[in-house]
Amino acid sequence: MNNFLEFINKDIEGKKENIQSMPTKTKANKKKFNDTITEYTKKYQDYKDKLFKYMSVKAAALSKVDKGEDINKIKEKVVSLERVKFLLNPSNTYLEKMGFDTLIYQINNYYTLNFKSLNVIINGFLDKFDQAGIHLNCDDFDYTCYVHEYMSAFLDVRHNKDKDYTKVSQIFEQIYWLNPEIIQHIELNFRKLIRKNQKKLNAYISSLQREEMAKTNVKSYAESIEELQEAYIELNMRQKETIADIIELSKSGAIDIEQYLESSKVRTQAYQSLIADSFNLDDKDKMNNICDALEKFKLNISELTNYYEFSALFKDFKSKYEKIVSTLSTKKTNHKSFKDIEVQIDKKEEELSKLNKRIYSNKPRLFKVQSDVELKNLKMETVIKAKELYELYKKYDEEYFNDEVMQVLSGTMSISDLLNLYYSFDYFKKIAIQKVYRLTTYEDVIKYSENFDLYAMNPTNVIINGVAVFQDSNLPRIIANKYRLSNIHIEEEDLIEDNLKPLLNKINIILRTHKIDNSSTSIEKIWFITKVNKYKLENEKTNE
Amino acid sequence: MQVTEENKINFDLSTLTLEELVEVYENIEIFLDFLEESKLETEEKGKDDE
């Protein structure tokens, strides 16, 4: 006998028989029995340890595969190009490019979305002004006397080293009982300052644009899109899954490598359901073509998954604007109502400013009681005026976005156009997401919003370029028909939302099997590496 | 040639396939579990043999 497996199997059999035949009636029997068990255990633990050592060395040798190129440089290039594209985006203004719209959304939803800290939001506004070289002081916060009082205390602490906001919180509490709308007033004050400093902020954005354009050597927005597209293609090529990635996926349990073994029913079904029966799997060239098509198909599925995730958002937009589209004879940009509201805001803010001046310059008259009453009334008037302004800003927001929508609205507006629209206006995107998905926390809004942005800025999107917002499209049919031409069996039903995950699993099995078959490793080797890794983790757990 | 207990691990493990290595390792693990479960409870000290 020269095979260790055979030896072990026979030896185990013999030892089991021996154990079972041992008497266990008396104390001495039991002692002898347990001594034998201990002796066998010691011996077999020794076998196990030595075998594990051998298997670990073997697994380590088998794991030595090409880990792929370093993609950090191309990743950095993509980030720089995305930044320059963001700054040059012609669809939005300094407000969005500075990220003020995100902060306005936060302060606007402070109570609705249970924000933990008002200080963080306020400091966010102040930091952005500072970045642009605009250093705000307490005199800039004159929307109401309450804002002035609160922000004076806030700025004092902001400029102090210890940054202890306890006193500011106390002041907030005192003001809150006199004026519960204090947060709205702070928001209005920042909105006013943003509009007031439009020129400086635009100049700052222009300097950033020049700086980023010089860094990336990009001369226009169109060029940034082209360069980004190329960089993305390169990045996608370089970050294609490698054998090392597959090994890690298997070791971590993210994929079940047993499904990839030739004997696996899951693998057989994957091939049978996706590749035509007549197809010769051994034909290398044809198999390469199929896998190229499947790689593209995978990207389409990812795009379709995103489309399903945000289809409620698209429907919401469609229901809001389809009536307008049907009456839209020519493309028009009507700034009238948007500009009218801006004039009204200016006028009312001027009135508010006059009232505030009277408050700030108020000096005790002959009868102090009369002066106090007058002061109280003046303060009340400013609060009422601020309330009116808050409503006006709401209308302004609506018209501001409508104005932007009208510039791209048409019967042929594509999902791609809609993605770009919301991507360009973070404030309105978040409002829509919050409403459509009925979200109650900022964390959830951020999660959807970030997924949306990734989807919107993905240059590998192709399907949505031809899908119109205001017309019904059968995306599964469009995709299925495309891939039938490439010898891939696909039914519309496979592409409905719930079936995408199993479909993706099948595609991955075929693609990974193809990759492994064309490499120096094999599925059996990866299966072995995974097993040894599992034993290693188990042994570590036992020894803890 | 008779295989002795002492020379068992001197087998040439490289003759085993990957599948066989896993099989033998798992058989050893199962046997170790069997041994652990087979252990008898020892009676308290001082108690007479039955």
What this model shows, in words?
The complex is a heterodimer of chains A (544) and B (50). By secondary structure, chain A is mainly alpha-helical. Helix content of chain A is 72%, strand content 0%. Chain A contains 23 helices and no strands. Chain B is mainly α. Chain B has a domain at 9-37. Chain B is built from one helix and no strands. The interface between A and B is large, with 43 and 33 residues.
From the alpha-carbon coordinates, what is the Rg of chain B to the nearest angstrom? 18 Å
Terminal residue distance of chain B: 45 Å
Q: Helix coverage percent of residues of chain B?
A: 40-55%
Count of helical segments of chain B? 1
State the order of secondary-structure elements of chain A, H for helix, E for strand: HHHHHHHHHHHHHHHHHHHHHHH
Shape of chain A: extended
Number of strands of chain A: 0
Mean pLDDT of chain B: 77
Query: What structural category do the secondary elements of chain B indicate?
Result: mainly alpha
Please report the distance between the alpha carbons of the first and last residues of chain A: 38 Å
- In round numbers, the mean pLDDT of chain A is 90
Greatest interface and its participating residue counts: A-B, 43 and 33 residues
